[in-house]
């Protein structure tokens, strides 16, 4: 290799190094999409959602992404995303972003109103799209809901969805009055969701009801 | 018959079947005795031979390595001792220049003082009192006969007595005065004596110091002589010295590594503020961590250059061959960069503290626990100041790593060479042992084979004995015929 070839090879080497670096950067980052159910009586649980958001803000690092969206009558829309951020590489900037994020969510929590129907599937599709766009190495959808999907007659959600390589964690799945009468309804509901999520290619399905043990949220 | 019983001649009786097989096989084993013996011997030679050859080669290599190590060790020792002797001579030269260059002045001063003392001494020599003039007069008067004019004589004598007494008193007074002045002169000697004593003591100290240096040089020269003669004592001393140096240098380097680790911890977090925390060079290497490490390595390198340019270490001959002006420039450059990096580290340490405080405040605001009151300002500033100070000092402390590093590099050759020789000898011993074991095993197997076919061998021996007995009988019959 003569001097000219060497000089020409340098940019290629730098480019390949940068590409490898970017790939590594993506592989190390993680993205979390939190779906918050605001339908019916579950809207009263918003205080717990605040705890979860705070936990996520404290746990996620620079380069990670977080988005919080609400689940309402039809949830497959960017307009349902309450707050989203990809935290800056500089820790000081990331901290400022986290503070702003928390304020945004607090404002939503203060003004949130319950919706008539619950479109969890639409939220999942929107979440998977957001997560795939971030290109993060580890992707997680957190569903803060009772997992009781209720759709209006016009909304179509009975088709296979794609959740490939995404962890799906159901948080604070409260028991409904009917579940108390017949627990099989509750267990059957969770089993149904598990089957659906696994069929969609999800990496993991997890249910966390005790919000005192949120450390399992981002593990796996 | 099951699959495992196919070999049984006597069904369901393994022992009997084995005995039968043994009896059947015995003639064949006897027939194959010689080839089997040959085979075992060949195998033992084929395995044991290379092993012994390997052992011999390793021993020869160990001997060669030892010789080479010795040559390197002695050469290094010669160079080191030569440098020490050179340094001693430089010290002697400095002593001579500093202390003995004033020796002519000292000698002149001594001569002056001695001359002055001599002059004073002469001055204070005892002056005999002048012979009394009146002695002659007394003698003349003594000859005067006493007669009628005795009264007159008596008067004269009385007058003479008075005069003599007067003269005597005057002479005594003068004599005493002269003595007093001489005593004064002698008293004036004291400061000169003291000065003389001091000057001589000073000269003695200089000479003693020179003597000590000369003794030191003699010892170094003896050592040098032994190294040149390549004596075992010199080799042993140099090896022990290298091992000690190696151990001490290793210990100091470990301590320095601890310091570098603390330094790294101090600047790794704030570096993420500069290069980003989310950048990864490889799967497990964060860019900010690498940047922090690079800063520490650059500091260590600058320290190394500083030590080299100060001629404390001798790792880079190129730096030593530079002109003094160039070397001084390089020294200033290295020192300047070191100071700059130390300043950067102090700033990073401050930033680390601020980032940690910011993160703690954020976590506090995110937690549901009640908010804590801020700490006392003075108390919270002490760790910050400590971190900044540590960040500033550690680069300079790291600069001194060059000294143990040089010792480590120099002694590692000797210690590594000795370890390699030991390893080669150990491996040679193991190979030789394995070769001997193979040969012994072959002998045991040959004997065991003969034990197995002992019956045919007994028969063979009986037949051969009978043949030997028959041959003499035939010979006898032939002779009779």
Structure explained in plain terms:
The complex is a heterodimer of chains A (220) and B (481). Chain A has helices at 3-28, 46-59, 91-111, 120-134, 177-181, 183-199; strands at residues 30-37, 65-71, 81-86, 138-144, 166-171, 204-208. By secondary structure, chain A is α/β, with parallel strands linked by helices. Chain A has one domain: von Willebrand factor, type A domain (Rossmann fold). In chain A, helix 2 (46-59) links the parallel strand 1 and strand 2. The termini of chain A are far apart. Mean pLDDT of chain A is 84; it is low at 1-10 and 15-23. Chain B is mainly alpha-helical and 481 residues long. Among the domains of chain B are: 101-228; 232-367 and 379-400, no CATH class. Chain B is 85% helix and 0% strand. Chain B has twelve helices and no strands. Chain B has helices at residues 14-31, 33-99, 103-123, 134-143, 150-228, 232-275, 287-309, 317-320, 324-366, 377-399, 402-452, 454-480. In chain B, helix 2 (33-99) packs across helix 6 and helix 9 (324-366) runs antiparallel to helix 10. Chain B is elongated, with a radius of gyration of 53 Å. The chains are: A alpha/beta (220), B mainly alpha (481). The interface between A and B is medium-sized, with 26 and 23 residues.
Total DSSP helices of chain B = 12
Number of helical stretches of at least 4 residues of chain A: 6
Main sheet of chain A, how many strands, which sense, barrel? 6 strands, mixed
Element order of chain A: H for helix, E for strand? HEHEEHHEEHHE
What oligomeric state do these chains adopt?
heterodimer
Helix content of chain B: over 70%
> How are the strands of the largest sheet of chain A arranged?
3-2-1-4-5-6
Going by CATH, the architecture of chain A would be: 3-Layer(aba) Sandwich
Main beta-sheet annotation of chain B: none
Strand content of chain B: under 5%
The CATH topology label of chain A is: Rossmann fold
């Amino acid at each position: 290799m003569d001097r000219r070839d060497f000089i020409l090879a340098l940019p290629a080497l730098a480019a390949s190094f940068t590409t490898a670096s970017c790939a590594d950067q993506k592989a190390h980052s993680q993205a979390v999409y939190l779906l918050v159910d605001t339908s019916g009586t579950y809207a009263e649980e918003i205080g717990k959602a605040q705890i979860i958001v705070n936990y996520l803000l404290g746990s996620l690092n620079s380069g990670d992404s977080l988005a919080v969206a609400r689940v309402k009558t039809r949830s497959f829309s960017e307009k349902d995303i309450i707050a989203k951020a990809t935290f800056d590489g500089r820790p000081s900037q990331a901290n400022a972003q986290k503070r702003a994020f928390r304020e945004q969510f607090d404002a939503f929590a203060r003004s949130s109103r319950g919706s008539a129907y619950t479109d969890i599937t639409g939220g999942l599709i929107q979440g998977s799209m957001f997560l795939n766009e971030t290109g993060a190495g580890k992707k997680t959808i957190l569903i803060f809901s009772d997992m009781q999907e209720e759709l209006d007659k016009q909304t179509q959600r009975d088709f296979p969805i794609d959740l490939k390589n995404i962890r799906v964690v159901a948080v604070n799945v409260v028991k409904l009055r009917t579940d108390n009468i017949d627990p099989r309804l509750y267990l059957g509901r969770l089993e149904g969701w598990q089957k659906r999520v696994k069929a969609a290619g999800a990496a993991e399905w997890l249910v966390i009801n005790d919000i005192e043990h949120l450390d399992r949220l981002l593990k796996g | 018959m099951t699959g495992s019983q196919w070999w049984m001649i006597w069904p369901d009786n393994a022992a009997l079947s084995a005995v039968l097989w043994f009896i059947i096989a015995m003639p064949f084993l006897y027939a194959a005795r010689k080839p089997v013996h040959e085979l075992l011997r060949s195998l033992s030679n084929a395995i044991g031979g290379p092993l012994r050859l390997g052992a011999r080669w390793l021993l020869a290599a160990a001997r060669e390595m030892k010789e080479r190590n010795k040559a390197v060790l002695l050469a290094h020792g010669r160079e080191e001792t030569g440098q020490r002797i050179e340094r001693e001579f430089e010290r002697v030269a400095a002593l001579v220049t500093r202390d003995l260059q004033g020796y002519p002045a000292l000698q002149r001063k001594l001569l002056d003082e001695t001359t002055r003392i001599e002059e004073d001494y002469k001055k204070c020599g005892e002056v005999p009192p002048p012979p009394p003039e009146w002695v002659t007069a007394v003698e003349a008067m003594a000859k005067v006969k006493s007669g009628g004019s005795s009264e007159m004589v008596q008067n004269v004598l009385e007058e003479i007595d008075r005069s003599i007494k007067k003269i005597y008193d005057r002479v005594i007074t003068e004599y005493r005065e002269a003595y007093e002045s001489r005593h004064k002169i002698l008293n004036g000697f004291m400061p000169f004596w003291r000065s003389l004593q001091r000057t001589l003591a000073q000269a003695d100290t200089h000479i003693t110091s020179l003597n000590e240096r000369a003794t030191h040089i003699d010892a170094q020269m003896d050592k040098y002589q032994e190294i040149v003669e390549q004596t075992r004592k010199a080799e042993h001393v140099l090896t022990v010295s290298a091992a000690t140096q190696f151990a001490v240098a290793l210990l100091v380097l470990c301590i320095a590594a601890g310091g570098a680790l603390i330094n790294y911890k101090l600047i790794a977090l704030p570096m993420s503020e500069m290069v980003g925390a989310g950048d990864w060079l490889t799967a497990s290497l964060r860019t900010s961590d690498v940047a922090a490490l690079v800063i520490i390595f650059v500091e260590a390198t600058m320290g190394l250059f500083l030590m080299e340019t100060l001629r404390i270490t001798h790792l880079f001959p190129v730096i030593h061959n530079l002109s003094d002006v160039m070397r001084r420039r390089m020294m200033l450059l290295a020192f300047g960069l070191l100071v700059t990096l130390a300043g950067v580290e102090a700033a990073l340490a401050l930033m680390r503290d601020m980032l940690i405080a910011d993160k703690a405040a954020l976590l506090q605001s995110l937690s549901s626990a009640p908010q804590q009151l801020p700490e006392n300002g003075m108390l919270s500033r002490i760790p910050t100041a400590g971190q900044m100070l540590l960040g500033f000092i550690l680069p300079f402390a790291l600069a001194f790593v060059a000294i143990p590093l040089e010792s480590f590099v120099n002694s590692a050759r000797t210690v590594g060479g000795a370890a390699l020789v030991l390893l080669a000898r150990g491996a040679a011993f193991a190979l030789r042992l394995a070769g001997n074991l193979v040969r012994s095993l072959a002998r045991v197997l040959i004997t065991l084979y003969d034990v197995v076919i002992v019956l045919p061998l007994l028969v063979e021996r009986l037949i051969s004995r009978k043949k030997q007995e028959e041959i003499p009988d035939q010979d006898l019959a032939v002779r009779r015929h």
